[in-house]
Amino acid sequence: MKKDCIYLDNNATTKVDSQVVEAMLPFFSEYYGNPSSMHVFGGQVGKAVSKAREQMAALLGAEESEIIFTSGGTEGDNAAIRSALLAQPEKRHIITSQVEHPAVLAQCKQLESKGYTVTYLSVNRQGQLDLDELEASLTGNTALVSIMYANNETGVVFPIEQIGLRVKSSGALFHVDAVQAVGKIPMNMKTSTIDMLTMSGHKIHAPKGIGALYVRRGVRFRPMVIGGGQERGRRSGTPNVPAIIALGQAAELELMHLEEATKRERKMRDRLEQTLIANIPDCEINGYGSERLPNTTSIGFKYIEGEAILFGLNQYGICASSGSACSSGSLEPSHVLRAMGLPYTILHGSIRFSLCRYTTDDEIDAVIAVMPGIIERLRALSPFTDDKAAWLQEHEQTLLGVKS
Ligand SMILES: Cc1ncc(COP(=O)(O)O)c(C=O)c1O
Ligand code: FES
Fold this sequence. Notes:
By secondary structure, the chain is an alpha/beta fold. The chain folds into 2 domains: 6-10 and 258-400, Aspartate Aminotransferase, domain 1 (Alpha-Beta Complex); 18-254, 3-Layer(aba) Sandwich (Aspartate Aminotransferase, domain 2), CATH 3.40.640.
């Protein structure tokens, strides 16, 4: 495995910060007590967990009592959706969007088979929701609206507070998957319309398998993991103390770096985009013109395959991705880009670069230097010309076996 790679796949996962590793290490073999124990040895671990909860709450502008530690984004999303439905058994309708992460979409699909009705809001070519469509979909039967803060593939940011105001006036609960937004967009739950918010540690330089779910005080929470009653009865199981300490430390660092790091990342991201667009014909930025995360760019290069571009980049030690980490490896084109109605050729030729606070200008320069050559070589080999690509687009539905 290359250690010296140029890592531009931070939306898939991030490197654990060395200060984070340092903070968690003593909790493996030195302070290994159970935070629920009555003795002082366990009690001091309990205090460290409380500090981590404070650090997490500070990043979200929340109260400590509103933070539940989870195993990550997927659990947070699952737990929030289930809780919202269990708390309002008389309501049988859910609203979400077509571009959510599978952690939300798979849950909704399963609920449909159990008799729930789910509305999947559409997005336009820029990846934006239509707030009128949302308003028209809300009914007295709507239990929950679950919408992501920012999209993991395109970085497109949804107008969460405008959505929340509409949700609140309908009486439904509002859950937000903020896995990609926490640490990149300032959050203040005290002035927000959000009832529940999911975050995940491994996107903010903490380890994998730890995260937090924010549940607004006063919102009835029905736990998904039940047992010994840890996390004030909201998530049972002996907590993963070292990972929680790590998450707290990572949250503190994110808050400290947020303003300056996102400014730097945006500058580098914009330079990367502008230079590639200027130097390579027939490419476009997915979600351009929409508000986007400062660290993310998804670029479609016509007439070639995203996987082939990644292979080319790999030879220079550059890590990027052709969609979400969970679905890359499958040949299905991205459900996000498809929902945006992108033409066949862009759909298949899209790759994502995602930066972090460790990204340097030299790394961006390296990508800028090799990309035109990679694209040119692949296009020279491509069997698709303009005309063939147009034919493919026309027959896209048949080729993909999509029902429509
Ligand atoms: C938007 C979004 N939601 C949820 C998840 C799942 O988080 P986790 O990997 O912590 O389960 C991810 C991770 O890629 C994500 O990008
Ligand atoms: S699990 Fe991370 S993008 Fe799907």
